[in-house]
Amino acid sequence: MSVVLPGATIGIVGGGQLGRMFALEARRMGYRVAVWDPGADSPAAQVADEAVIAPFHDPEAARELARRSDLVTLEWENADVATLRELEALVPVRPGPAVLEVAQHRLREKDAARRLGVPTADYRAVHSLDDLRAAVAEIGAPAVLKTARGGYDGKGQAVIRDPADAEAALRSVAPEGTELILEAFVRFRMEISVVCARSTTGEVSCFPVGENEHRGGILHSTVVPARVSPAVAAEARRIARALVEGLDVVGLLAVEMFVGDDGVVRMNEIAPRPHNSGHYTWEACPVSQFEQQLRAVCGLPLGSADLLRPAAMVNLMGDDAGTGLGRMGTVEMMAVPTAALHLYGKAESRPGRKMGHVTALGDDADQALQRAQRAWHALAADVDAVALAPARE
Ligand code: AMP
Which positions bind ATP (predicted)? Predict the structure, then answer.
């Protein structure tokens, strides 16, 4: 398979912060970048060479991206599969639409995991209240009801603590007729993730295991290396490799997992793209996850995924409580040793919206986390100021 070299134009489906960081890395390496996103001022379009501004199901937009690109990759896994198949007829799309068909659907994801020898929580497909009642009876409570499609960051989910809650949970999660999955509630010690790359040549390289803390279903922080036993870390990496190879991914695959109270590592979900929990790689590894994605899809040798220093990343979320106190928090944050600021260029701060993140390094995971938290506290007091709109006033 031919190698795609600097000077070529890489198309990205999706214009969010993942596309922005990918574009920054690609441009550093001499590639051109074309972004497809419905938003005119998307985070990725701000730093790209070109933008196609159109809805994701628009076939003409897909053709336009194909005309402008030598190769197309993704930063968003909910792109329309049929449209991507049309795109694939015109230009190489990596990862391919077949991977998205699995990653867009929690049932298919878990079926694939089981097929590949990867443990998951017990689960059942649910299409009706009768199905749900039967599934709760089989799996037991507590259990988590989720939409099979479209849910992310804890959206479209309800915990069923008692079988009597089934009907209310069903109504709260989605309109009738929506495909759902009921999962056993995993009692976990820790949530972890691994971002793994696989290139056009089949070369595989996994970044170290990250330890994740979620708040309200959304990632809050990642600490690397995860404070787990070598056996748990090895199992997490085995799982990531089994999935990236078994699903024939070209590009990145992020695998989120639970470390159960019983010590078993279970896959929760996968994403065939860069992942929030891999942002630390920018500062802490010889190549970032974004450069690794570029290398993988271009058919270049993968870079070293070694951890140069322990690291921690904390997300900066939008918050409607903030009053825009100015940017003094940024000055304070910059004084924290090793702390690095990433802002995504989003004009509007909304509750639950990822506005940026901070990464810090340390002699060990604890020190890195303390530093990242100090930096985060300085900025979080000031969180509306991380929306970039006020600067234009
Ligand atoms: P998800 O959208 O599947 O990533 O879920 C968001 C968060 O909800 C996860 O990171 C967990 O903290 C929690 N969660 C999801 N599914 C389960 C489960 N089956 N058992 C326990 N906690 C879960």
Answer: 106, 146, 151-157, 183-186, 191, 214, 268-269
Q: For tokens 């295991």, what's the residue? A: 209
In this structure, are strands 9-13 and 71-74 parallel, antiparallel, or unpaired? parallel
- Which of 154-168, 200-214, 283-297, 362-376 shows the lowest per-residue confidence on average (mean pLDDT)? 154-168
Pocket of ligand 1 (CB under 6 A): 121, 144, 151-152, 154, 183, 185-186, 191, 214, 217, 256, 268-269
The CATH number that domain 9-93 falls under is: 3.40.50.20
358: which 2 tokens? 């901070």
Average pLDDT, the chain: 92
Question: Ligand 1: distance of its center to the CA of 57 in Å?
Answer: 29
43 three-state secondary structure: coil
Amino acid at site 106: R
CA angle 111, 117, 118 (to 5 degrees): 70
Query: With bands split at pLDDT 50, 70 and 90, how would you rate the model's confidence at 364?
Result: very high
Among 144, 160, 188, residue to substitute to test ligand 1 (most atoms within 8 Å of Cβ): 144
pLDDT tens digits, residue range 219-246?
Answer: 999 999 999 999 999 999 999 999 999 9
Report the topology of domain 122-184.
Answer: Dna Ligase; domain 1 (3.30.1490)
Residue 328 confidence (pLDDT): 62
Class level of CATH domain 188-379? alpha beta
Q: Which atom of ligand 1 is nearest to the CA of 121?
A: 19
